[in-house]
Amino acid sequence: MTTAPTRTTDTADPADTADTAATADPAATAHSSTARRSPERRREVTPASPSLRRLIAVAIACMPVLVPSGPGNTSPADLPIVLAVVGIVLWLSRNRARLHVPYAAGMWLMMVAGAVAALANQHLGSIAVLGQDLFLLVWAGAIACAVRADRSLVRLVCVTWCWSGIVCAGLLVVGRLGNLPWLAGQTARDGSRSALTFGDPNLAGNYFVASLFLLLAFRYPRRRILRGGAVLLVVAAVVFTGSNGAMLGMVAGVGAGVVVGVWRSRGAALAIVLIAVLTVGGGLLVTSVDWGSLQAQAASGGPILHDSFGRGDSSSQDRQVLFAETTRLFWNGTLVGVGPGRTQEVLASIPAPYVKEAHNDYTATLVELGAVGGLGLVVLLASVAVRLASVSTTRGRATRVPLSGRLLPAPHWLVAIGVSFVMAGLFYEVLHFRHLWAFLGLLAGLDLLRSEGARAASVPDAPGAPGARAQVGPTDVPPPRPPQPAVAAGRGLGRASRPADREPPSGRRRPRIPGRDVLDNIAARLVAVVALGVGTIIVARVGGAEDVGVLALLRVVPGLVGVVAACGLAGAMGYFLAGPHSDDPRLWPTIIALLAGGVLLGTGAWLLLLPLIPSSLFGTTSTLVMVLAGVSVGTQLPLGVAKSSLQGLGDRHGSNVVTAAEEVAFLPAFGIAYLVGLRGPLLLVVVLIVADVVVAGGGWVRLVREVHRRGSRMTGRPDRRLARSIVSFGLLGQVGGLVNLLNLRLDFLVLGALAGPAPLGVYAVASKFAELARLPALAVTWVSYPRMARMGPAVSARVARRQLPRLAGLGVVSALVLALAARPLLPAFYGSEFLASVLPAVIIAVGLVASPAGGLASGYLLGTRRPGTNSVLQTAGLVTTLVLDLVLIPPFGLLGAAVASALAYLVTDLTTIFVVGRLTRRTHAT
Questions:
Q1: pLDDT digits (tens, 9 = 90+) for 149-160
Q2: Cα–Cα distances in Å, from 468 out to 5, 460, 463, 464?
Q3: What is the pTM of this model?
């Protein structure tokens, strides 16, 4: 029985909050008043009608029907998809439900890059490919919105897809075993490989792999015997397609699904051990087996082996040639790209020795859509990874809230689907597969249900309606804060109202450093690293090596001047906004005063010292450029403070967005300034200022809203004692930051002076690659630092002691993965001359095994107000680096520098872990 949708308001019922307002303290009352102004409550939506449900089921079931194909890559499957999308939009519009378009940021970048490439190459016909991308994005968005509005549609989509996969697999197997080529979809071109109604065996194999893991995730059919038979049937269909990429994706997906499942059920320690075993076992299997002889035997065997594993050698050789050709197209062409879908056409016009479509999503995106399109693909993959982590890796009670009962019994197998698609992208182009976007839409809908269910679970039921669970959705009234006794801040630094140790209430989960937040920060840092790399490539192509050097100096030197002038203000935000001073009404006026003073002091010092700065340092004699470089002191400092303040306030999403946007904003600003006519150092400094102003402006708008939402004010009179406390903390912490920066790059200086630029270039590649293992450590420090300050010394000591061993295991796994990946990846990306980088990269990666645990240890020291201790430990690492560089680099060169860096990293991390272990043991004992 359906009911009419009820409208909800954005304010709470006064009756529900009267008692709370009467008994709560002023801080809680202010919090409740601001809570009533929180975002809108989701409207209740009339459930989908039977006719709409049938439309959605038909659209899912018809995804395999892709032949005969029509113009513009259309197929019979598109008609039910269009009808389902229209029906969903009309249904949601009638209910005035909010529409979501997931993955819009990455796809927008890719579509804009494709349009620019088509216009630049004067091939407007290729813009039609962008219409396919828009169609698929709308298809995914429609599924996500439908699932969010009516969670029963999750079962409809999954059951329909499972049965569709089972029936299609059965038809294909019957066609093969019954020698019915028309039923199995066999053609003379593909030999014994079967495509059913997909038109391509690779596409068919990928669909069956996705269906296989969806069977496991949804555990359908419910009876294990029937489900086991369905799994065997789908696996047989994958084998009959003869798609090596699908079978490799299936194996990788099984490994990923098992690891995530073990992590959810048995904990991180056993999962880390399993990852290490699988990695070592896989490495031994790949290196010890004679794959050439096995492929030769398979090629002389039956038709199934001949057309699958037996053709692997020739297929891999063809793809290597194609990969080399497409990579050469990117490097020899413009950064704009050749246009969507034009790889084969451009290869034929060269002419190239092997003319074919790219058969690789990653190289195809770079060649056809250019550098900006590649950035869009990275953003898309990052958004998918974040949603997979959100839906599939949540443990314990948090999973049972939004994904309860039979909705999705084994969500960790969704990771297997994601891994299989990522692997498939290496062998053929999957971004235009309809079932890929159906899966992405289902994933986005589950993520929306998870987030709304988690928020709803944190709010008690309304009075008079106990146990009501009519619709899972967010609410705008958070639970009131319990009154807290005022406690002195300690150490005589300002006024504080929070207790020193926040013990978790009985019955709640014990405090921890959330892995989801760490993964989110790692994703943001990866986006920033990729954007920085793309920006550096663009600057190098436009202005050469000199402009790259100027850009590096403009990024580092003015920012360093601002940080020193503000006495390390950004580094102190995590402690003072999350620690015992967070409720001080004069905290924000003091922060604003210190920020303004730092901006004025840093900019003034730059302008006063301007005559003493050598003009050759920035590659220009223009006074305007040097003055603008001083202005950038005043733009970089507010950006850093905004980013650190958002993290300190617990707005990790906002902090991650600023982290990524800090580098991403450089790209469009550079394009606009270049089109205006700016060149050289003037172009770079203007672009940096504009990008900083835009990102800092957005960050401060979000920061002001967050502060006012908490009932605080940014205006008022500063507190001199509190200012001295912040300055002291910031200066002590900044010493450690400068020492760490010098520690990272001291080996570069010594090696460059002793060995010259060529060995330095080889070593720089090895060092940068191995230092990817530092990303988890940086993310752990960033997340744990304010969280430790919020917990208090006693609770944070227990958390640190509990999680240090787990992070040590993570460091071993990440170092092992990077060490094994160095040999195939470094020569592939940089060329055969960089084979000499492999061994130094392995050595440095081994030295970083303790970096995640060291990151947590640094976060503990900062969060418990010990920045000086952290700086002293960093100084010990610098001394180790200096001594070992001078001893090992002269006789051993590259290997000496690598060993010195590895030992310095290891000594710093282990010393920090040892000191924190002693401190936490002492705190726990007291």
A1: 998 899 999 999
A2: 17, 10, 10, 9
A3: 0.58
